[in-house]
Structures are given as structure tokens and as C-alpha cells.
């Protein structure tokens, strides 16, 4: 059955190879099952429900990717956009998490419509590649900063605004140990390095008494009730001027994350044909389903995972890899008691290393072109300093068309960029007037 549907022999693979590839991809991305509840839990959302929502929508979208698009690409809630959801929208702007989920739902509907009518490519292409790279790199710095703060490595300082945390604190030392272990594993190119690093750090914490023992390891799947459908109830408060830039940012970041990840994975795996991805529409639809379905279940937007490249590296060539990854994601739902073990000191190393990986996008920016460099720099720096992804994007998208105009290159700027610039000017004005 698998052979005929996925054409395994034709692709030079087998059920055994695809199974191993699916397991490898799962292990490489499994950290999100514990990191996402930690990040979204900061908003007051039920961590157990978020855990289930994360695993369930990741399984649904990834299996769709495998069975329909027939690619070995995994999909799950993305790091970076979940930080924007939690720290920028809910905590920073004071928006209720139910309303924020409604914002994701609205963005998901638009996302789905743009995918169906094949408009996504037009919008993506309107934004300069340099700014796309700046957004990805800036999100990397923002994620790393969250990890450094949550892990206690850096803290507020009255004299210098920011400084080192209390490194004599045993829990901070646990974070440092986790960072060094995870770095070493990743440097050695160990499959599932981030996940293994989290497990190792958790074990050290348990042995030293810094982390409490879980009541059990396996249990029934927790209830989704605390988050399920809350996006619909939040719709009554979502159509405001304050939420327009939020919805736009959900859309933009999801655009860039998915497009960049898919292209990167496809290129490294040799799936591109004449620099295009066959069945691209079906692959993009898997992500659209993930974003829309995730909002209804109770989680932030999804994206294609670059960790899929680990499964591809050991031979995964067809959608059967993603099918197996999805099955492992479903099985993981029975391990919710381990959430108590995965503290912020355990997840911090994962956030830091993902931040490093995302920062690699900065090399794609043309730093010799000042309008491009200035807009990119403000985007990158604005995110961690304002503790807001949307604020960083706003700065870059306002400055870029302005500098292109004053240097006589206004005609090279796509009209969509001017529209986005105006929207973000309104966004900044609203933020400032609302204190």
C-alpha cells in the first residue's frame, strides 16, 4: 500500500528508511511540544491544553503534508510567532489571549483564502529579500533574548539597563549546563540535538533536586476544553484598530516563516525543479490548515519546520516520512505529565540555539546598500530592544520605502510595500497614543 501510493522504489527509499526518517524528524522537533506551552503559558493559557493543541495540530498538518502534498516536511507551531503572540500582543499590548487567538483565526482565514487563490506568492514577492532575511534574523535575536531572560542569564540592571543575572543561582547554572550540552550536541551534528539537550538538562535538574519529580510519565490525553474554540468567542473583540497590525503581523511572519523554510528545506533536499517546488500549492495548503486549525484548538500559528532536513538527511524522500512523524506526534500526547519537568531553565537552551540558527539569515542582507541596511538594521534591533516583533517590523517597513524615495529609487518599491508602510505608521501611532 505504502509502496504504490508514495512510489517508494521510484524515489529510492523504503518503508524502513521512511520510518527512521520520520522518527528522526520527530525527535528533532519534539522540543516544541514543551517549549510552546511554556511560552503561551506566560499569557495565562492552560499549559496542558496548549500541549495537546500543539501536538494535535502538528500531527494533522504534518500528515496532510505527507498524504496530500507527498513531501517529507513537518509542520508545527513556530517559535518566534508564539513569542509575538505571548509577549508582544497579550503581555505587551494587554490583549486577552482569547482575542489574540481570534486574531490568529482571522489571519488563518485570510491565509487560507490567499492560498486558495494563489495570492500568497504575490505578497511574498513584493517584500524585498533583504527585509525577509532581516525579519527572520531579528526574530532569532528576540527568541534568544527570551531564552536568556527566562534562563536567568541576563536580567534588568538599574545602572546599565540590562546586565548579567545571578550566575551563582543553581537554577541559572542548570541553564548554563543545558546551553553547553545542547551546543556541543548540535556542533557534533547529533540528530535531535535540541531535544536530547532538553532531556539531559531535565535529568540533571531532577538528580540535583532543582526540578520536581513528575507524578507520572504517561497519562491520558489532557482536556482541550480550556482553549478549544476560544478563538470564536474572542471574535467580538478582534475587529479594532489595535488588532489590525497584530493580524497583519501574524500573516506576514507566517508568510516569511513558511516560504523561507519550505524553500530552504526543498533546496537542501533536492526537491526543487527549475527553481520551483512541484505541488507547492498543496504544501502551502498544509500550513494554511495548520494555522486555521491551530487557532481553533488553542495555539499560535504554524510553520514548516527546518528540522525536517534531519529526516531528509538520513534518507526520507516521500510523504511517508511526514506520515510517520505525524503518528509519533499523536503518540506524544500521552506524555503530558512531563510538562512539570520542562521548566524555563530547560527550554532556555532550545530558544537560544534556535535564535542562533535564525540569525544566519543576516548574511543574506546587502549591508552596502544603505536604505536596505538601515531598514534591516532597525528591524533586527527593534525586535529585542522593544521586546516586540511587530515593532521591529514596523520600523523597517516604514523606513525602507521612505529611504528608497529620497534616493530616487521609489519606482523600485512595490506598491504593496507603500501600503504596508502606511499601515505600520498607523500601528506605531496607536501604540504611542495608547501609552
TrEMBL record:
<keyword id="KW-0472">Membrane</keyword>
<keyword id="KW-0813">Transport</keyword>
<keyword id="KW-1003">Cell membrane</keyword>
<feature type="transmembrane region" description="Helical">
    <location>
        <begin position="75"/>
        <end position="94"/>
    </location>
</feature>
<dbReference type="InterPro" id="IPR026033">
    <property type="entry name" value="Azg-like_bact_archaea"/>
</dbReference>
<keyword id="KW-1133">Transmembrane helix</keyword>
<keyword id="KW-0812">Transmembrane</keyword>
<feature type="transmembrane region" description="Helical">
    <location>
        <begin position="318"/>
        <end position="341"/>
    </location>
</feature>
<dbReference type="InterPro" id="IPR006043">
    <property type="entry name" value="NCS2"/>
</dbReference>
<dbReference type="GO" id="GO:0005345">
    <property type="term" value="F:purine nucleobase transmembrane transporter activity"/>
</dbReference>
<feature type="transmembrane region" description="Helical">
    <location>
        <begin position="243"/>
        <end position="263"/>
    </location>
</feature>
<feature type="transmembrane region" description="Helical">
    <location>
        <begin position="348"/>
        <end position="365"/>
    </location>
</feature>
<dbReference type="InterPro" id="IPR045018">
    <property type="entry name" value="Azg-like"/>
</dbReference>
<feature type="transmembrane region" description="Helical">
    <location>
        <begin position="193"/>
        <end position="213"/>
    </location>
</feature>
<feature type="transmembrane region" description="Helical">
    <location>
        <begin position="385"/>
        <end position="403"/>
    </location>
</feature>
<feature type="transmembrane region" description="Helical">
    <location>
        <begin position="415"/>
        <end position="432"/>
    </location>
</feature>
<feature type="transmembrane region" description="Helical">
    <location>
        <begin position="100"/>
        <end position="119"/>
    </location>
</feature>
<dbReference type="Pfam" id="PF00860">
    <property type="entry name" value="Xan_ur_permease"/>
</dbReference>
<feature type="transmembrane region" description="Helical">
    <location>
        <begin position="20"/>
        <end position="43"/>
    </location>
</feature>
<comment type="similarity">
    <text>Belongs to the nucleobase:cation symporter-2 (NCS2) (TC 2.A.40) family. Azg-like subfamily.</text>
</comment>
<feature type="transmembrane region" description="Helical">
    <location>
        <begin position="49"/>
        <end position="68"/>
    </location>
</feature>
<protein>
    <submittedName>
        <fullName>Putative permease</fullName>
    </submittedName>
</protein>
<feature type="transmembrane region" description="Helical">
    <location>
        <begin position="131"/>
        <end position="155"/>
    </location>
</feature>
<dbReference type="GO" id="GO:0005886">
    <property type="term" value="C:plasma membrane"/>
</dbReference>
